[in-house]
Design brief:
mainly alpha; 41% helix; binds zinc ion
């Protein structure tokens, strides 16, 4: 399996699926990427900043890990994970 973003081989376990058309925009197709490339990609195009602004609208009942684990929820370093999770899996 090859990373769509950097064209290098991806080791099993380091694969993350990226939606070229965001799931939140109705996209269903996914392409394989490295986790690191994927995060860097969204970070580069400014998604996390935009997603952060809508984070407050997410229901507390969604029971996603990043919202519920105390140490994660309280830690600023995990803001990026929450935004990422929201954009890809919340719908
Ligand atoms: Zn990559
Ligand atoms: Zn993505």
């Amino acid at each position: 399996m090859t990373c769509t973003l950097c064209n290098e081989l991806i080791a099993p376990g380091d694969v993350e699926m990226h939606h070229p058309v965001y799931k939140s925009h109705g996209g269903s197709q996914v392409v394989p990427t490295h986790r690191a490339c994927h995060v860097a990609h969204h970070s580069t195009i400014g998604d996390f900043k935009a997603w952060g602004s809508i984070g407050g609208q997410i229901s507390a009942l969604s029971k996603r890990w990043a919202f519920n684990l105390k140490h994660v929820r309280a830690h600023p370093a995990h803001d990026i994970n929450r935004a990422f999770y929201t954009a890809h899996y919340a719908h």
